[in-house]
TrEMBL record:
GO MF entries: xenobiotic transmembrane transporter activity
Region annotated Disordered, chain positions: 1-43
Gene Ontology CC: one annotated term: plasma membrane
Protein's recorded name: Acriflavin resistance protein
Record-annotated membrane-spanning stretches: 63-87, 383-400, 407-427, 433-458, 478-498, 510-533, 588-610, 913-936, 943-963, 969-995, 1016-1037, 1049-1073
Biased composition (Gly residues): 13-38
Organism: Lysobacter sp. ATCC 53042
Low complexity: bias regions: 1-12
Length: 1108
């Protein structure tokens, strides 16, 4: 067995001292106590031990541990895998369409009434609306804790209530769908073909692939992008129409009436009932081409006489490609409660069966698979977990120097992890980055209790007790310390479990996993560990001074190092206690220094919600001015994709022009999804690739290209502005236009060195021809404004005018005009209308036109007119740096009255997380003080324990400053972890000293001195074990290391500094509080006796140990 330090430092075992493992309270008798439990000493002296029956039955304890491990292994196999804990940001999007309406019309007649009704729903956090040409959508974000299904029902009720306020011309009621704002699609599936046309490929994807994938367990939505359904397109020839004396409205009416499918009734044939049907339905372009739409001069006018009729797509401007080949893209999202990895694996398993039912030349390519990175990152965390176990085992072997005690202590690791796995399974947790990091850090915690127990048992054995007796007495003696440490650790992480804000939701699985592991560890250390010690542990005397052999010499040298370290510590301890009036200021000074270091980290390294990870994926948005022709824009997008594919780090490029079947596409926009090669095959990180490609796209004409690295969390949201990650909302409560204010502010923001890709929702403006109708002239001719709108829409728009019903789907007939593609503004006035008298008149007879500029989008935020400014950050600039730069610029040039600034998206999440983290830290400290005060029945002893916390905070922020690690949620978790670790050292000292004073009659100096020296070795062991567990995290290797590294760095720095300072400050502050309380007691006694007060020399005689 490991040799002990000098016996004089250890002292004899405290026979019967301390608390039994059953949980009796230690009295607060002595200075600072608020009363004593008169029966505590009697119970302890009786030798009562709750866990004695288990300790006396080592075989039973071993089988109990084996059963726990087997149950834990089963639970581990059953656990799902995910990147992050389930973050359910309940949100609902309402989507409405009204073909032919511009953005202003959609905003006034559709979006505003919807917002007014949706804003009355309880629990709504934010409402943002966007009106585009032909469509509008309203996004409702609910508070945390709101049930998504219940919110969706409320949204449907609000839509129903709004129907009376919406225009009658809407083709269908507004639709809604639920989504999780924290999730990207878990998988993209591209379908390519070199022989099928675009509409045929889309039909294969829509009719065959989409239903197969939608049926997979865990799939929420399958959105088709890069195409549109098959349609019969009717392209009118205006000259032919004029020659036949027809208008586009008349063609529309003919098409609508020609393909009606309705019930016709039935006839009787004796006893039989016969249903009526017609065979007049039209299905293909050739059927419609022969349709008679009018009769002129007794000759039928067929549709082919006045139009080109052909089979095509409903929207010709939507397309997609995969590595340059025509494609249709299926964007697949999972349900909020589904496991991402299991869902993607099920989808991949369904693809071989899908390939057998689609045409032979259709290729199916699963891409942009976020779960591949998830699995790689989790494998790295699992490797880190094993490496941490090895590091902790090496630390214990270094101190214990025997295989037996080391294995007994390490037995707590699989037992505690098994207990955590069982709890995770029954609480429906997943194996994600946070829960696995909790298990890695738990290794440093769970061995602490076992180390303390084993060290105390060994100390009893060194004084001649047999192993079983030493196990019983040592466990009884150290029981209260273990219970105190465990409860105080639970107090640290308990606030992380309760609450509904984003921070709590993110760290809840982390906290619960760690708390369960710690509680199981405490039970194991008080049952299985002493049982194994009593059965298998043997005390090996120190080797003789002349014993031969390498290991004997090594052990003697280690003994000398132990003695030298303990002697050095004893001298430093005497100095610190002698200068305890000076040492009392250490916590306060460290608090000030911690604040300064935290500010320095924020100023230099910055901060963000979560660290950016290298997931090997990029999303690229391409935008152009609304007046750029679709053909030119498509050519520019192909150039962007070609440049991407030419980069050596890029593996696949998927391009999507226009929207998907949810209709949310916006003209003049394209999205590209880029898969990079594995990290081992490329020489650059994702951030470096983004920066490199950004430089290549700057000179590209007509378009704006914005590249972002994909993040699981904290990466902002796509859309709005010009595709930048980070959003700033400007709202106006005065009714004044925001366009000028927004554009001027954006111009100043572009000059900031911290920002790039600054864009606004007003960047995309459209030149338009404003048509002014002379209502009196129109009325004289029997025409209305609606007649003008219909004529223009039929002539220059793309109007669905009829439905084609097939056996498995529905298709549209789309009416358009060749003039819409080739005409100039002046031809607007050549559009003919039929008057009430049946005559044909040009539009110029009743209207005039004039050019105008209008935004192509109208935005609202919380029912106010709003504008969005989006931006990205230049390399090396943190999210906090970006917010600070924006705030400083706006502070120098205030916004006009009635205009407010508000951050949204990930910027808003950062601010909410910072507030939640600050509240969490305060709650933890208050809860710990209350709990420790209850355990020690004292108001002062908890202060001794909490005095260790500033040193840990200072060390954490100092390490982050040196390594330039950003402040993130992982840093906050590290600080909370340090609170739990460093106070354990003080608890071990204070508990020993209190019992020594009460049971052995020691004065405070003797008690705290012996406590510090006796606990020196287990304190160093437990601290080094925790550092060993955190070291692999701090080194940062493998996929996802960006998430883990800040946690390890902060923990290592905090442990190192607190270990150096609190070993000296804790005894000194303990004595200073004793001195202070004693002086108050003496003053109170003299006031009660009426004696005159005396000077400080009298106190010096009363406390002769101060001169020691």
């Amino acid at each position: 067995m490991a040799a002990a330090p000098a016996r004089s430092a250890r002292g004899p075992p405290r026979g019967g001292a301390g608390m039994s493992a059953g949980g009796e309270g230690v009295s607060g008798e002595g200075v600072g106590g608020e009363g004593a439990d008169g029966n505590a000493g009697e119970r302890e002296g009786s030798g009562w031990n709750l866990f004695a029956p288990v300790i006396r039955r080592p075989i039973g304890a071993s089988l109990m541990g084996l059963g726990l491990i087997l149950a834990g292994l089963w639970s581990f196999v059953m656990l799902g895998v995910a990147a992050l804990p389930a973050l359910d940001f309940p949100a609902v999007v309402v989507f409405a369409q009204m073909p032919g309406a511009n953005a202003q019309t959609m905003a006034a007649t559709v979006m505003t009434p919807l917002e007014r009704h949706l804003g009355r729903i309880p629990g709504v956090k934010d409402i943002s609306g966007t009106a585009n040409e032909n469509s509008a959508q309203v996004q409702i974000l609910f508070e945390f804790g709101i049930n998504a299904d219940s919110a969706a029902r409320d949204v449907q009720a609000a839509i129903n209530a709004s129907m009376s306020d919406l225009p009658a011309g809407m083709p269908s009621p507004p639709q809604y769908f639920k989504f999780d704002t924290s999730q990207l699609p878990v998988l993209l599936v591209t379908m390519t073909s070199s022989t099928l046309s675009a509409d045929q490929l889309f039909e294969v994807a829509d009719n065959l692939a989409k239903p197969v994938i939608a049926r997979v367990s865990g799939v929420a939505t399958v959105q088709l992008s890069g195409g549109s359904p098959r349609a019969v397109r009717v392209e009118l020839d205006d000259r032919a129409l004029a020659a036949k004396g027809l208008t586009a409205n008349e063609v529309q009416n003919a098409l609508t009436a020609a393909n009606v499918t309705s019930a016709l009734g039935e006839v009787r044939d004796g006893p039989q009932r016969l249903l009526l049907t017609t065979t007049a339905s039209l299905h293909r372009a050739t059927d419609f081409a022969g349709l008679v739409i009018a009769v002129r001069d007794r000759a039928p006018v067929r549709l082919a006489d006045v139009a080109r009729v052909f089979d095509g797509q409903e929207d010709e401007h939507q397309s997609a490609s995969f590595n340059g080949e025509r494609a249709v893209v299926l964007q697949i999202s999972k349900r909020p409660d589904a496991n991402a990895v299991a869902t993607v694996e099920a989808i991949r398993a369904a693809l071989p069966g899908l390939s057998r039912i689609v045409p032979a030349d259709v290729g199916i390519h699963p891409i942009f698979d976020l779960t591949e990175t998830t699995k790689s990152a989790l494998h790295e965390v699992e490797f880190t977990l094993m490496l941490s176990v090895v590091m902790v085992a090496m630390v214990m072997l270094l101190f214990l120097r025997r295989i037996g005690p080391t294995l007994i202590a390490m037995a707590s690791v699989p037992l505690s992890l098994a207990g955590a796995f069982i709890a995770m399974y029954f609480m429906d947790f997943s194996l994600n980055t946070f829960s696995l990091i909790a298990l890695v850090l738990a290794i440093g915690f769970v061995v602490d209790d076992a180390i303390v127990v084993i060290e105390n048992v060994v100390r009893h054995m060194e004084f001649g007790q047999k192993p079983l007796e030493a196990s019983l007495n040592g466990t009884r003696e150290i029981g209260f310390t273990v219970v105190s440490i465990t409860l105080s650790l639970v107090a640290v992480f308990a606030p992380m479990v309760f609450g509904n804000n984003m921070f709590v939701t993110l760290v809840r699985e982390f906290a619960v996993t760690l708390v369960v592991a710690i509680v199981v560890s405490a039970v194991v250390s008080l049952t299985v560990t002493p049982a194994l010690c009593g059965k298998y542990l043997r005390h090996d005397p120190a080797p003789a001074a002349d014993a031969p052999g390498f290991f004997a010499r090594l052990e003697r040298r280690l003994h000398r190092w132990d003695d030298a370290a303990l002697e050095l510590y004893r001298r430093m301890l005497v100095w610190s206690m002698h200068h305890r009036r000076l040492m009392r200021w250490q916590p306060l000074s460290l608090i000030v220094l911690t604040g300064a270091l935290a500010a320095a980290v924020a100023m230099t390294a910055g901060g963000s919600v979560m660290p950016d990870e290298d997931l090997g994926m990029m999303d690229v948005s391409v935008r152009t001015d609304a007046n750029v022709a679709p053909e030119l824009f498509a050519r520019r997008v192909r150039e962007v994709a070609t440049t991407l594919r030419a980069d050596p780090a890029v593996a696949n490029v998927t391009t999507i022009l226009g929207g998907g079947d949810l209709g949310a596409g916006e003209s003049g926009t394209a999205s590209l999804f880029v898969d990079l090669r594995p990290l081992r095959e490329r020489k650059a990180t994702t951030a470096e690739v983004v920066d490199r490609l950004n430089k290549q796209y700057k000179p590209l004409a007509d378009v704006e290209v914005v590249l972002n690295s994909v993040q699981f969390f904290g990466g902002g949201e796509r859309g709005g502005g010009s595709g930048g990650k980070y959003k700033l909302q400007l709202t106006s409560s005065s009714g004044s236009s925001l366009q000028d204010v927004t554009l001027r502010l954006a111009q100043r923001l572009r000059a900031l060195p911290q920002l790039r890709d600054v864009g606004t929702s007003f960047d995309s403006v459209g030149k338009q021809q404003a048509i002014t109708v002379d209502r009196e002239a129109a009325a004289r001719l029997g025409l209305s404004v609606a007649d003008v709108d219909d004529a223009l829409y039929n002539a220059f728009g793309q109007r669905p005018v009829s439905l084609i019903y097939s056996d498995i789907n529905q298709y549209r007939v789309v009416l358009t005009s060749a003039r819409a593609r080739n005409s100039g503004p002046e031809q607007l006035l050549d559009t003919y209308l039929r008057t009430g008298q049946g005559e044909m008149v040009p539009l110029s007879a009743i209207a005039t036109i004039a050019p105008a500029i209008t935004p192509t989008k109208v935005s609202h935020y919380n029912q106010l007119e709003s504008a969005t400014i989006s931006y990205n950050l230049k390399p090396g600039v943190s999210q906090v740096d970006g917010i600070r730069a924006v705030d400083q610029l706006i502070g120098r040039t205030p916004l006009p009255p009635g205009v407010q600034k508000e951050y949204s998206g990930s910027n808003q999440q950062l601010m909410e997380a910072a507030g939640g983290a600050a509240l969490m830290l305060v709650s933890v400290i208050v809860l710990m003080y209350v709990l420790l005060g209850m355990l020690y029945n004292s108001l002062f002893h908890p202060l001794v324990i909490l005095s260790t916390l500033p040193a840990a905070g200072m060390g954490a922020f100092l390490a982050m400053l040196v390594t330039q690690t950003q402040l993130t949620l992982m840093s906050v978790i590290a600080v909370l972890m340090l609170i739990g670790i460093v106070k354990k050292n003080a608890i071990m000292m204070v508990d020993f000293a209190l019992v020594a004073e009460r049971e052995r009659g020691m004065n405070p100096v003797e008690a705290i001195t012996e406590a510090a020296l006796v606990r020196f070795r287990p304190i160093v062991m437990t601290t080094l074990a925790a550092m060993g567990a955190a070291l692999p995290l701090a080194i940062g290797f493998g996929v996802g290391s960006e998430m883990r590294q800040p946690l390890g760095i902060a923990i290592l720095g905090g442990l190192l500094v607190s270990q150096l300072l609190t070993l000296l400050s804790t005894p000194a502050i303990y004595l200073w509080l004793h001195d202070r309380a004693e002086r108050k007691a003496v003053k109170r006694a003299r006031r009660e006796s009426g004696a005159a007060p005396q000077g400080r020399r009298w106190f010096a005689r009363l406390r002769p140990w101060r001169r020691a």
